[in-house]
Amino acid sequence: MGDLRAEEPTEVLDVLGRVCPYPLVLTKKKMEKMEKDTLLKVLCDAPASAEDSIPKYAEKQGFGFDSVKVEDKGHWELYIKKTK
Fold first, then answer.
1. What integer pLDDT is reported at residue 81 of this predicted model?
2. pTM above 0.90, yes or no
3. Predicted confidence (pLDDT) per residue in 67-78, tens digit
4. Residue 15, Cβ neighbours under 10 Å: how many?
5. Rg of the chain's alpha carbons, rounded to an integer?
6. What is the three-class DSSP state of 81?
7. In degrees to the nearest 10, what's the CA dihedral of 84, 35, 8, 68?
8. Beta carbons of 63 and 80 less than 8 angstroms apart
9. How far apart are CA 48 and CA 11, in angstroms?
10. Is 13 in contact with 77 (CB distance < 8 Å)?
11. Pair 44, 76: CB distance under 8 Å
12. Is 74 exposed, middle or buried (0-12, 13-18, 19+ CB in 10 A)?
């Protein structure tokens, strides 16, 4: 699928300060509204959501997924591409 981090996101969802399950719930709601072949960038600082629940959700849906932890800011940037 390539490096999703190199692509310009269609939309950005900021869930900083939210704890489980809200980052996943808000990500799911946002993805439901997005068109095929669009890219969502999620800003998340909840480790369980960033490293577990959101990646599992993307995998289960068959979406493209990539993430990077921004160490100096203490959050993750999650990239989810809606492929269907």
1. 97
2. yes
3. 999 999 999 999
4. 23
5. 11
6. strand
7. -50
8. yes
9. 22
10. no
11. yes
12. exposed
